[in-house]
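Two records follow; treat each independently.
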Amino acid sequence: MNIFITGGTGLIGQALIPVLLNQQHQLSLLTRSEKKARRLFPQKNLRFFTSLTALKNLDEFDVVINLAGEPIFAKAWSEAQKATLFNSRVKLTEQIALLINAGLNPPRLISASATGIYGDGGDQLMNDENSTAFNTFSARLCQAWESAALQAKTTVCLLRTGIVLSPKGGALAKMLPLYRLNLAGRLGSGKQYWAWIALEDAVNAVLFLISNLDCKGIYNLTAPHPVTNSEFNQELAAALHRCAPFPVPAFALKLALGERADMLLESQNVFPKRLLEAGFKFQYVNLKQYFTSLFPKK
């Protein structure tokens, strides 16, 4: 297939692109830094775009995989940073939808979103991808992001992705040093559910949706067994043979992180109902299995 990708230098993109190249797909990448992208992907058979203005439509492509977005947790959510987060997701997706609609042979669109759209659901099992979204910043951002993708007059798959776990980057890579120094602990009450997915399964889910042409609509990219933060804390500490005795109260997280603390404290008991119904098989179905694969006993 001829595939156009945005956000290729992110955590999922960096893992996805080598697999697609090995499968002999033709890839074109939209990137803000061609220098960085070429360093990450030195393969000769890649095309790079630094702007969408070079394209009149996207008819030459079979699939567009839209993963772009400013890292959401990296900086405090000032009004300026919120605008950056919005523009990097929503405005870019709107531009992609316009290009798709400008052609006569539109590609399928696989576009990122996040489980943040569900807000704080407590213990409620969120197995209905059409559940009502909540009125937090991250929920509003995801709603606008998905609405922009749905403007495309083509088959659209929306990826409501949970916490992507990998020791190579993202949240887990930032946690590991604290756990290895016995300085970690549960966050807030620890009762909030974390919807997670192994990086390998996130990549395989995208590949699955690419190859299954009947797939469309909203998909929760989360493992079948979400865990509470306390369970996550215990499982990771046990896998590393460490202690995690230092809980962080919710008020301390809010003082330190402001609105960003919501991403750690909101409870999202999310289940990948439609992905499983479509026939996708997870490599890592529960957290203990995943951590055991990462940190085998010596």
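The next record belongs to a different protein.
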Amino acid sequence: MVAATTRQQIVQAADTLFYERGFEATSFADIAVVVGLSRGNFYYHFKTKDEILHAVIAYRLSNIQAMLEAWEVGAKTPIDRIRSFIQILILNQAKIMAYGCPVGTLCNELAKRDHIAKNRAVELFTLFRDWLSCQFTALGHGTQADELAMHILMRSQGVAALATAFRDEAFIRREVDDICLWLAVQRPNLSDNPESVSIQNS
């Protein structure tokens, strides 16, 4: 039980450091310091940094899956569920402005290095893609559901990248408002005045 707890602490610390510093820039020693482990105790749980990376990706996949399931329970309509995804940009804006999107930054770093785990990291995006596609299918966009899901992912990643560059909260809120207006237009049988749709960012 103690070993399992320690392993989880290592994974959580590595997850944070990989996000804030990058995978390559984070050392075993950096993670060990955060957790408070000696080198020997650390190697008992993980022999290589790649092992930690795979555990971090699995940890993120699990967290994303839990979040998606919570949105399914907490939101009544597909529009509301998709809006929950868009609102991540507001809820996490401080971290996004400081470090970028945790999924996008990891995928980009691993792709640049042609790392063996790059395809595994893409599964983080795929979880969102498949879930968003299901929501658009539920809205009646069967043939275009995946295209619309990719559009939402593209826009959110673009906002995250520019938010990191310019550190502009007002920009993030404007873009979230605009994405929500675009989403409202995707609703079947929407009135001719989509601007009347209520949008809340808090």
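Discussion point: Residues 190-202 have pLDDT under 50 and may be disordered. How would you locate this feature using only the token line?
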